[in-house]
Amino acid sequence: MPHALADKIAADMQAxxxxxxxxxxxxxxxxxxxxxxxxxxxxxxxxxxxxxAFFDALRAVAAxxxxxxxxxxxxxxxxxxxxxxxxFVAREYRVDLGPDGVILTxxxxxxxxxxxxxxxxxxxxxxxxxxxxxxxxxxxxQAGGRMVLVQTDAEFQPDLDALAAALTDRTRAVLINTxxxxxxxxxxxERCAGLAAVLARHDRPDRPLYLVCDDPYRRILYGLxxxxxxxxxxxxxxxxxxxxxDLSIPGERAGYIVVPxxxxxxxxxxxxxxxxxxxxxxxxxxxLIQRVLxxxxxxxxxxxxxxxxxxLLCSALCEYGYALTTPRGALYAFxxxxxxxxxxxxxxxxxxxxxxxxxxxxxxxxxxRIAFCVERATILGALPAFKAALAECxxx
Amino acid sequence: MPHALADKIAADMQAxxxxxxxxxxxxxxxxxxxxxxxxxxxxxxxxxxxxxAFFDALRAVAAxxxxxxxxxxxxxxxxxxxxxxxxFVAREYRVDLGPDGVILTxxxxxxxxxxxxxxxxxxxxxxxxxxxxxxxxxxxxQAGGRMVLVQTDAEFQPDLDALAAALTDRTRAVLINTxxxxxxxxxxxERCAGLAAVLARHDRPDRPLYLVCDDPYRRILYGLxxxxxxxxxxxxxxxxxxxxxDLSIPGERAGYIVVPxxxxxxxxxxxxxxxxxxxxxxxxxxxLIQRVLxxxxxxxxxxxxxxxxxxLLCSALCEYGYALTTPRGALYAFxxxxxxxxxxxxxxxxxxxxxxxxxxxxxxxxxxRIAFCVERATILGALPAFKAALAECxxx
Lengths: 396, 396
Fold this sequence. Notes:
Two copies of one chain form a homodimer.
Chain A: H1 7-15, H2 17-33, E1 39-40, H3 52-63, H4 79-93, E2 102-106, H5 107-119, E3 125-130, H6 135-142, E4 146-151, H7 160-166, E5 171-176, H8 189-202, E6 210-214, E7 237-242, E8 254-258, H9 266-279, H10 287-296, H11 303-320, E9 332-333, H12 342-351, E10 354-355, E11 357-358, E12 368-371, H13 376-395
Parallel strand pairs in A: 1-10, 3-4, 3-5, 5-6, 6-7
Antiparallel strand pairs in A: 2-8, 7-8, 9-12, 11-12
Helix pairs in contact in A: 3-10, 4-10, 5-9, 11-13
């Protein structure tokens, strides 16, 4: 280990080196063939245009030169911004919620770190359903916890028996993400209710078990009116989310935590989360974006753009012969790879100048994640490569 | 311990309860006497008006409806914003610095957490000079480190012998803050050079010792043209700072880390800090404020407002008979209390409807911190109370 860095950080850097290597290869390809001839489907960077309501709100906020609007406010956020977000959440989730149940955070990432830190004693287990967003491991370990992976079924729906079998006396939380990154699965209402029932059987006052819903893709849906949620069925549920996808503004760090009224010891938890927002160094969600949210907390970007991309990509992949569970939400397709080694398949695609992420990075080998939040031309340009790579694997 | 929260968090909440109690008392006083008759000098919330350059930049940024400007950018920040901040830092510190040496962060708080996490192995010691900003303890402990306090001298200048005596094989970093919160001390050039020499004698390649300068008050100076710094004298120095005070925008979370070219293993450290900005959940400094900084990275609020407040407060305190080292920078006066028990003295001031913070919260009992970043009327209203409280203590 180098002495200049903490051992754990040096190890994390080392573990991430294969991703960096892939990006390096991609960059070399772009230099060699021109960026327009390399098709990067590796990044989850929402590319829809933010809605007019966002730009209008931003302009109004920028025109207001009151100096006090850029100062520290209470760590949970400006009152009007919390009220606007609470009103939106109450409608969206069909729950009873006032401003006091909402803490504005530095993105969902900041919110998730506050929640995990608030509840995890050293060595506590946090169950994550795989495939999963790989940043969770950092968040859980930073909170002193230990990530325990439980695989979902073949269609990426929660496997309730596997979940029940994984719960122990050290399980402090179950973390779910629906619509899911990377699989695009939307957990069914039936499976949500089943999951709630499994948790309810395990929860005890002396050993409380939290359900943490990471919901930033909740409104990015295809062919569904409403995203099912276990929040009504399991009282000790905390929601973490953001406006990164709704408004297509992930760079602005506009996140929030919701602690619904049904959560036991709610005031204690809200107090701890507010303190942690400060002590973990986030301090508060950025003042500017809070003031924008106060004006457009229910706005939504044009999801139809993503839907067209999804249809284009998924119908082609299926036609070529890929085994794919068509995503019902979020911004990714997660097909099986035609050969078991997903890293090797990623390398084959790279030779065809297409960048995707191997499934093992998400805890599910034998798949690749294809982000369709890109220019349409990028998808169209990549399709022949997917066809050719599959043929190559079959020919081999 | 309640079961709903992690033990450490519940304990931190408990430890903070006396501060909350004081605020509650203040709130009751405001309800009883009217807010205009309660003089709150407890909060370090910069109240200068942001400079015109800031408001102009914000309006220009808000008028630009390019959708891509709100998306994820590299975790270290937009290129143009990093370049603007680097150019400012190079001039301000008189160092050679390019954009690659700057990482934009979620406030100085976010930057400090990245730095400490990058370098601290579990149990490593971080020396903090007291009096000190109490959030440091959270940041250090979150990074797995242990805070070691070393008192400054009677005028709040570094005590070099005490510092040398506190260095051990486990010391990973020394954290300094000049101009200082809460004392207002500006470390002299001579003392900065002496501090650098002490650290240089201890630093070894197999046991590197970082100097971390927390510099958000650097340009808030009274009667000084330039704030001395040890950065030129000690190579392994990392600067953490923000625009919270310069632009009077602490709610916007506009911070940065500087790793000067002289730092050994610089590329490794910059890589780790960039990764940590992401994995600790900050992800990036808010996109909007980055774009504003790209246009006004060297702007400064009107420091004369603070200076007038300082003069008004400090000359009155001295006239009444308080023992006070007049602050040369930052936003606080830190007089000795006329009785040794600073919490008891805070209570006496509270009876006179004045709110300040006891020195023991900053690691220096027998003092109180008085924030002068408030409306002038608040200072004027509080002065008779300071006079009366002193007389009371002397009469007793």
